Amino acid sequence: MNHAILQMVCFIAFAVVAVGAALAVVSVKNTVHAVLALVLTFFSAACLWMLAEAEFLALALVVVYVGAVMVLFLFVVMMLDIDLEPMREGFIKYLPIGIGAAVIMLLEMLGIIGIKTLQVPAGPNPAGMSNIEWLGTALFTHFLLPFEIAALILTVGLVAAVVLALRVRTFSRRQNPAAQSAVRAAGRVRMVKMAASTTAPGPTTVGEDSQA
Amino acid sequence: MSMSSDPMILLWTLAKILVIAVPLIIAVAMYVWWERKVIGWMHVRMGPNKIGPFGLLQAFADVTKLLIKEIIIPTNANRFLYFTAPLLAVIPALAVWAIIPFDNGAVLSNANAGVLFLLAMTSLGVYGIILAGWASNSRYALLGAMRSAAQMISYEICMGMALVCVLILAGSLNFTAIVEAQAGGKGLFDWFWLPLLPMFFVYYISGVAETNRLPFDVAEGESEIVAGFHVEYSGSAFALFFLAEYANMILLSFLAPILFLGGWLSPFQGWHLGWFSQPGWWWLFLKFFIFATSLIWLRATFPRYRYDQIMRLGWKVFIPISIAWIFVAGLFKYFNVVTIGH
């Protein structure tokens, strides 16, 4: 078996799964199933990138999207009580718009990449470095400023999300962990000394009547 | 490997996978036995002692019992996801072992992106738990799944940051390179636990929280929500969750030594103690055994954390420590404070 053929078989398998799962995202009835189909789409895309030897991109996709974003997404979708029927009514009506958008996106992508470059195989790794080494060097030398700005924008987005979601309630009661940790038994429990055994109070009167 | 044809490479890889996976599954069984034995001693009990010598066959008897039990599917459970969930829990737990080195060169895939692969696979494990809770169509199971998901996502962050500190110092994402970076003439004082001491603790405690073990086992919480996400599971489906949890514990017990305690390096390297100064797989397995036992010790010692305390520890204590120590690790690297390799 040729190495190229094996790679081709793998590519077709992953591609078919990716496309099938993407179709399932918009066509299955259950929303949780749709989210899981999206997870499968991401995972298959990661496998495709792995096949193209873009291992950093592939693993980052799995870590960020599959491992974090989609988990939160699934979390939310599970909590929602969605009535599915009204949501599916518009499916056929909006299908032409969706297909139109997809075709435009395809054309745009082909325009960016250029149809001719699709035929050219990817170049070898520069200077024999691994993918990640090369990416790290590029990010922290030539693209340091854009990289830092992107990080700053993400942090601003994070702070904005927290501020939007934060509701300051006037009567909220919170715990003070420092005070909780500082609690000592002496302040809460009173130890009472008691003798292990005590004598019965007063003289016994039982038996006096029976003596007579 | 001189074999050139693809089928031979595939067969050879399959053989190597079996050589790792089968002992791993047996190790899970032995670990369960060891856990019950150690907890028994700590409780001044005998532990399992009836089946086989020292009760050694108890775990295998339990597995057989689980496998021949009927699997009961709750009414209105989502059948497809109900059966997929245990598989989603166990597949990542086994897949991670592809990049774990047992000795210099004794690894299935010496991938350059080993640490990333580890992060990717461990982040997948949460799906099995969430889906099990949701598909069971049970309130207790859903509560357990929600708790577990929130906990695993929270602790994954500081665990990832601990890994970042290690790879800043080692300058590599490859596990073999990370271990070799800890080699040096000072033996155990050249390992990463010393410059990264706070992160070592953060990593270990986060690892315990990631595996949903006591004192962080609110996802199961017997006294509150029966058994959490797997309350509706029986028979072999339950056994798969069990396998995944213990495989993850064994993974943590291997990773902590590899990342922070020099992996297969001898603690006395460069001390000229003859055989004791030689690196070898036995050092890694010895360290593994100590960590695996410490997980059991934790279980027998600590009461369960309250849920809000778990969240506070993860977000308000560990993450600030991690962010600060990434900066410190960067300074160590920049000023060459830590010697890397020989």
What are the key terms here?
heterodimer; A: 212 residues; mainly alpha; Four Helix Bundle (Hemerythrin (Met), subunit A); 3 domains; B: 342 residues
Report on the structure:
- The complex is a heterodimer of chains A (212) and B (342).
- Chain A is mainly alpha-helical and 212 residues long.
- In chain A, 67% of the residues lie in helices and 0% in strands.
- Chain A has three domains: 1-82, NADH-ubiquinone/plastoquinone oxidoreductase chain 6, subunit NuoJ (Four Helix Bundle (Hemerythrin (Met), subunit A)); 87-123; 129-166.
- Chain A contains nine helices and no strands.
- By secondary structure, chain B is mostly helical.
- Chain B folds into two domains: 1-68; 78-334, no CATH class.
- In chain B, 64% of the residues lie in helices and 0% in strands.
- Chain B contains eleven helices and no strands.
- Chain B is globular and about 60 Å long.
- The mean pLDDT of chain B is 85.
- At the A-B interface, helix 2 and helix 3 of A face helix 4, helix 5 and helix 11 of B.
